[in-house]
Amino acid sequence: MFTQFKYWEPYISPFDPCPPMRIKSYSTPPQLYIPFQPKGLPQFKPMEALYRGTLWPALFSPYPDPKKRGDQDE
Amino acid sequence: MWYYEKKLQYPVRVSQCNPMLAKFLIEQYGGADGELAAALRYLNQRYTIPDKVAGLLNDIGTEEFAHLEMIATMVYKLTKDATPEQMKEAGLGAHYADHDKALFFHNAAGAPFTATYFQAKGDPIADIYEDIAAEEKARATYQWLINMSDDPDINDGLKFLREREVVHSMRFREAAEILKEERDKKTYY
Amino acid sequence: MNKQLPQEYYELLEEIQAVDFVLVELNLYLDTHPDDYDAIEQFNTFTKKSKELKVVYEKKYGPLMNFGRSYSNYPWDWKEAPWPWQV
């Protein structure tokens, strides 16, 4: 199992002019963790596949982050 | 040989009359990490890539033209009924002066499309890794476009296109594995 | 002349887009998994479904493809609006 978003906290300087974004995030989609798609993965039904953009739930990458936290950017 | 099917790959809808979005969407039409660059990159590389992955380059390259058409549809719908005033307010004054409402291959900043946006080194590993990187860059660009847009219908289309980049990246990574495979032992299927 | 398309046009089109999308996904998958028998079977089943839906669509709304991949009506309707970016 893997997480689809990673988080980090950049250094915040006392001299920064703007209100700081304390937590930054980036997307880590499924292709990073699946070296080669195995046979027989479960599939969406065709209409749902069209709207999701893929036939396989295992390859689906949500965006934006469904777990958007506090003052996080994007 | 190419044939054209008279339908979009995905039903594109635009719910809000906001020509300003068109200024940013054009990045995926004529920009460095956009659909035209992708289509030309893969279709051009396919002549010299090893046969076992040429089919993939052919097919993904073809799908990218379908995506180009989707972006064009979004831009077309957002601008076709805009007055010159609206075009100016949307930041599209310079575009209008040159093109009226016609689409053109430039990026969001106005820089014209160029073949320098992509490469074909002739080395299969270099070419496939360029392709993986291209898909990740396109995915990221869709993220920034989704961030800027609050039109739910456009976002549906952009999320579809972003997910397609995820799947394409997956396929190119598999192609890299296929290229790496030692002749006597099959590591995967 | 402002042609308007009925709701059922959009519904049929969406059904075709869904089936054809499955075909694109399977096609790309099979390009890297040529030995997946079940996927090939599914691909051929969906190909049949796609062709059947398109027979219905083309009878009502005209040709989907040019250069002889679809039949033509009289007068020549390939060039008629709406085009996909207008729909």
Automatic annotation (TrEMBL), chain A:
Q: Name one Pfam family in it.
A: CotJA
Its domain of life reads Bacteria
Write down what this protein is called.
Spore coat protein CotJA
Which species is the source of this protein?
Answer: Virgibacillus oceani
Q: Organism classification, top ranks?
A: Bacteria, Bacillati, Bacillota, Bacilli, Bacillales
The UniProt gene name for this protein comes to cotJA
